[in-house]
Structures are given as C-alpha cells and as structure tokens.
Specification:
Length: 700
C-alpha cells in the first residue's frame, strides 16, 4: 500500500456520490466540497413531499395495465411458474422419491405431534395434509416441509389448556386409552377441536395481515441467538411432557407459574415409585435406543445408501403389529392410540367461541412459526441459489392456516428435521408437496384404522428422538460466548426464562432482551481514533493499525454508527474524552492534594476531524449537537472538520442550515483532504508566528 496515493479530493468510500446534489448558490457550503459537486455531481432539484408523492403515483400508474395487473396476480402463485418451467426428465423422479419419503415421515410425526397438542392423533395427520397442498401452491421454498412441529404443538397445547379448564381436558398425555365412552367426553373433545381450528384461523389472519402490510422484514428481528435459545428451552418442555407417556403414568396436574419444570419433576418422581408400567417403560426405552441408532446410521451412511430409511414408520409398524398380537393393552394395560376415524374431514366453519382469549396466543404462535419457517427457507435459498420472498412466504403460511382451519386443522409450521430430509432426498421443486399429499391422503382415507393398536409410548419415543437437534443446540451457548457477549446474554436470557417459567413468558423476555441489546448497540457504538497508514490516503483505527501515523495538534475520529437522538449523549461525552477535554465539574469540597483543574489552558489539539462515513443518516438532534460542539471547540481555539458525509447527511445539513451556523469550509469530501487542510493551516500559523517573532526581535 506504500505506493498508493490519493491526490484528488474524490470520495472512494461513498457509492452515492454519483447522486450528489448541487447546492443552491446562496448556501454557504464548503468551497472544496462545492467545487467537487460542481465538477463531478449532477443537479437534482429539491422536491417537496407532495411532489415526491405525485412522482411516485405517476410512476406506478404509468405501468398500470391489465397485463401488468394479471402478471402481478399470477406472481402470487409460484406454482404456475414452477409448472411452466418444469423439466420432467430432470426433476420428476427426484420429486416423487422426496415426496414419498417425506410423507412416510409425516405419518408417525403427525400422529405423535397430534397427541402432543392434546388432540387425537388423526388431527396431526390432517395438519400434515391440507397445509402442505396450500403451501405447494403459494410457497417459494421447495425444500421447506410444512406441517406439524414440536415447539408449535406444545404452544398450541398450552393455548388450549388456558382456554378450556384443565379438569375438562381428557385427551392428554395421561390417559390410559383414547377410546371415549360417554357424551361428555365427546363434547369436550369437540370443544378442544373447535378451539384449535379457531386458533389456526386467527394465526392465519395475523400472517395475512403481516403479508399485506409487507412486514416480512420483521422476522429478522427474531435473531438466530433468540430462536436458538427459545427452541432449546421449548424442546425441554416437550421432552418433559413425553416422560409420563414413556412410563405410562398420569402426569402431575395443576403445576403452573415459576419453576414449573423443577416442581413437575419432583411430583413425577413420587408417581413413578407407585404407578410405573414396566412393560410400557421397556417398550419406550427400547424404541428410543433403536430409533436413535437407526437415525445415526442413516445420517452417517446416507451418501452411500442414497435413500433415507423410514425408521419412524418402521417403528410404528413393528410397534403396532407387536401390540396387536401380544394384546399389550388388555393384558399389560399399555396405553394405545385407540380407534382413529377414517376419511378426510368435511368442511366446517371454526366456531370462534373463544376468539378473544386466543388473540394473544395466536400472535405468539404466528411470530414463532414465521421466524422459524422463514429462517429455514432463507437457509435453503442461500444454499441452492433460488429466491425466497418473506412477504410471499407470509402469504403462503397465512392462506395455509386459514384454509386448513375449515378442515379441522390446528396451526402449522415448518419442521427442520423433515425439511433436511426433503432437501437430501433429491427433490428440487414445489411439486414435492403434491406427491407427499397423495401418499398422506391415501393413508388418511384407507389406512388409519390399522394404527389403533400402536402403543402411545412409541409415539413419545418418536418425539423425544426428533428433539435431538433442538436439545443439542445447548452447545450454542459456548459458541455465542466466544463470538459475542451480548448474543450470549440474549441466548441465556431466552433459554433460562423459557426453562424456569413457560414458553410464552420466555418468548416475551427474549424479545425484550433482543430489543434492549439492539438499542445498546446503537446507543454505544465504537468511537475510534484514526491514524494514517504510511503515506497513503487511508486512515484506520490505531487499535488495529498501531503503525498508523497521528499528526501533532490534529485528532482524527470516527463514530461507527449513525448519529441520532438516542446515542447523541454518548457521542458528546466520548468525543470530548478522546480529544482530552473533561466536562466534569470540580468537587465543591476538596481535601488532601489539590485537585487538578479539569480544563486545560492550552488545548492539546488545534484541529479535530470527524470521519462521518459510517453515518447513514443524522437527525435534527445530531445536527444541533454538531453545531453546539463546533462553537464550543471554537471558543477553546479548536477547529472542527467533517469528512465523507453521505448524500442524506448533507441534505439534512442543508435543511437545518448547518453551513450558515458554522463555517463554509467545515465539510470535506475525504478525510485525507481534511487532514491536508489542517496541516496547511498549522504550517501557515507557524510561519505567521515566526514572522511575528522576527518582527518583534528586530524592533527590540
């Protein structure tokens, strides 16, 4: 870099200098900056807000034709473009295989997660069928598997329990059979189903509103550390809810509030001593071990066998056959799934009985599901090079939930485990969902009665093993601890609050913590001292470039954030600290040694240069602060220069009449030109002082 020199006052850092706006002739702007604008910039007349609105509407309506409107509507249905560009020879076989494999995963997971929501297993299969079809039509990520998901299922169960009295809930993890014997039982089940479908409708409406308002970008505020901490804590709740099913005992009731999980385990231990079912426990433990080993082998040798073995479906088939012929339910009192109704549900309007109590859970579930689903869709899009639109994804999720709510479905979401399998099975287009739905529809219509002898402990084993990826996220704590302390705090606060309190409370705590951390990052950014790298025009932080040269009487600073009201107090305090000016008051009462004066008679620096290249914008408070600092430094005999101001910043300066309240040569195009101006001014002062001294000596 020693041979690099910047002789011209050209801003190489700001890309918007091609759009520099020439100042009005009456504006007392910097002569150097004005000459640069006149030579290289273009004149763009200032437009009022009304003129901006008129220009925008004119631009929009200029292309407002029937064909444009039709294309805009058709773009909302990505399946049409997929069918138009579909390559049968290249994609059909892979899509069929991926659809079949994912459908095989849907069957046991749908039944298991259906039980997790405290609903009969068949409703988990409904959620694995209807939303998949709708997402295939409106979704943009071919590798995202929509349907049941453990964390969302747990949140749905908690929402249902909060609306329906716990004493009335009979379809839960504690029952010894899912066969219902009286009308009151059926009434309560219908009540829970109606509440779940109402919840799905509300979740879909929330997602559609976010899509129509184009608020898909809000998902980025639910950051990766937050999602990791939240899903890890929720996975422990899911794991805990399945332990009673493994041991085939009734789960402790009435445990709510703080330290829910510790109190749950204390009561669970006393129940295990008296009520444990050894046969069910043996089946559950063996199922967990076999399924874990099979999945491990699948993952290790998937590159060689190229086909993912349906371990969960094999476990369901073996468990059902064994239970049926050995009569585990009648002889050993092992809980089984029981009768499952066959056929697709009829069109039913959600009852909306408890809609006012479900609004908050609906917003919470919508936020969690969209953050998890969109983050997975973005991950696959980066890996495979296709485009995923957050607003279009919100539209797909919303329509899926609204449509499915009329067919007795609860809210759906993307599943990481199924999505990874769907990606690794060779599927490439949205038609994977169609082939998966064909298989699932066949099972729902004709084969569900075959699973009535399936032990509930097998479904619990499937859920527990599928939590492996979420539970292993606990190692993210050390990862974030090494990368960023603030991200580690966010992960820890979210995880601990979910673990010790509940899922919804943990969600709110995590979101508040994320907001506070983002605020801290903007309120107290880095404020660094710059030095010149050898003889180039580059100026870098002296912390990372200790060899950077600092000129005597000149201080070069850079504030690594936009300057606005929230960080203005920090900017002012840190600015004066870096130029060795202390603004603190002397103590009213002194003792011991005499206190040093805070204000030095002679300032350390004559020129202070502020590199404004990180300023994306500056508000009125920031401009007023710079004007105040300029005049305060001038009283102290210090000159303030600004450099590398972006177009938006300069526009705010013009509107706030910054140049009229400071001086005409305050703003420079580059930091190097500001440094050269300060050096020249110092040299001129030195020459003038020498001449004055010589004149005085000659007179003496």
């Amino acid at each position: 870099m020693t041979g690099i020199r910047f002789e011209k006052d050209i801003d190489y850092h700001n890309e918007d200098d091609g759009e520099l706006t020439a100042a009005e002739p009456s504006t007392p702007r910097s002569r150097r900056l004005q000459s640069f604008v006149d030579e290289y910039g273009t004149y763009r007349p200032h437009l009022s807000r009304i003129d901006h609105i008129k220009r925008y509407l004119k631009k929009q309506f200029a292309t407002f034709t029937f064909l444009c409107c039709l294309n805009s509507v058709l773009d909302k249905i990505p399946l049409l473009r997929c069918l138009k560009e579909y390559n049968i020879r290249k994609n059909l076989f892979g899509d069929i295989i991926a659809g079949i494999i994912v459908a095989i995963m849907h069957i046991p997971q749908g039944m298991a997660y259906g039980v997790l929501t405290t609903l009969p297993p068949i409703y988990g299969l409904y959620v694995s069928f209807f939303p998949v079809i709708i997402y295939m039509i409106f979704g943009t990520c071919p590798h995202l598997s929509i349907g049941t998901f453990a964390v969302i299922s747990l949140m749905i169960a908690q929402a249902l329990e909060s609306v329906i009295q716990p004493s009335m809930s009979i379809i839960n993890n504690n029952q010894t059979s899912s066969t219902f014997s009286n009308d009151s039982d059926l009434f309560l089940i219908n009540e829970k189903i109606g509440t779940a479908t109402t919840l799905a409708l509300l979740v879909g409406i929330v997602q559609l509103i976010l899509s129509f308002l184009r608020l898909g970008f809000l998902a980025i505020y639910l950051t990766e550390p937050f999602i990791s901490g939240f899903t890890t804590g929720a996975a422990l709740h899911v794991f805990t809810s399945q332990i009673p099913l493994i041991f085939d005992i009734k789960a402790p009731r009435g445990i709510n509030g703080a330290f829910k999980l510790p109190r749950f385990y204390i009561k669970l231990i006393s129940l295990l001593i008296h009520n444990i079912n050894l046969v069910s426990t043996a089946i559950g433990i063996i199922s967990i071990i076999v399924l874990y080993v099979a999945k491990y082998l699948n993952e290790r040798y998937k590159s060689k066998i190229r086909i993912v073995l349906p371990c969960e479906l094999i476990l369901v088939i073996i468990g059902t056959i064994t239970s049926h012929f050995t009569k585990l339910h009648s002889k050993h009192r092992v809980s089984v799934v029981g009768e499952i109704k066959r056929g697709l549900p009829s069109l039913t309007v959600p009852p909306l009985n408890h809609w006012n109590q479900l609004i908050v859970p609906a917003i919470t579930i919508a936020a969690v599901s969209l953050s998890i689903s969109i983050s997975m869709a973005k991950m696959f899009s980066r890996k495979h090079g296709y485009k995923v639109s957050s607003n279009q994804e919100l539209l797909a999720y919303g329509i899926s939930n609204v449509f499915s709510s009329f067919f007795q479905c609860y809210p759906s979401a993307g599943s990481l485990s199924r999505s990874v399998v769907q990606e690794g099975s060779g599927g490439k287009t949205l038609l994977i969902g169609g082939f998966s739905s064909i298989v699932l529809g066949t099972v729902i219509i004709a084969l569900t009665h075959l699973f009535r002898s399936l032990p509930m402990t097998c479904l619990a084993a499937i859920i527990i093993v599928n939590l492996k990826g979420l539970l292993f996220q606990m190692k993210d704590f050390m990862f974030y601890f090494q990368i960023s302390l603030l991200e580690c705090i966010l992960w820890t606060m979210t995880f601990v609050s979910v673990l010790l309190f509940d899922v919804d409370i943990g969600l709110y705590v995590g979101m508040c913590t994320s907001f506070v951390i983002n605020t801290i990052r903007t309120q107290k950014p880095r404020f660094v001292v710059l030095g010149q790298v050898e003889e180039t025009g580059l100026y870098k932080s002296i912390v990372y470039f200790p060899s950077g040269h600092q000129y005597s009487k000149i201080k070069i600073l850079r504030f690594d954030e936009s300057l606005y009201a929230c960080n203005a107090p920090f900017f002012k305090r840190k600015f004066y600290e870096l130029i060795d000016i202390h603004l603190s008051y002397s103590p009213l009462i002194s003792w011991g040694e005499k206190t040093q004066k805070n204000h030095k008679n002679e300032p350390t620096y004559k020129y202070v240069i502020l590199d404004c290249s990180p300023f994306n914008y500056i508000d009125t408070v920031g401009v007023k602060l710079l004007i105040q600092i300029f005049h305060d430094l001038k009283k102290r005999g210090i000159t303030l220069y600004l450099s590398e101001c972006r177009l938006e910043v300069r526009h705010t300066f013009d509107v706030m009449k910054f140049y009229e309240q400071t001086e005409s040569d305050t703003v420079y195009v580059t930091t190097h030109s500001a440094v050269m101006a300060a050096r020249n001014a110092l040299n001129n002062e030195s020459v003038n002082n020498d001449e004055t001294n010589e004149l005085v000596e000659s007179q003496l």
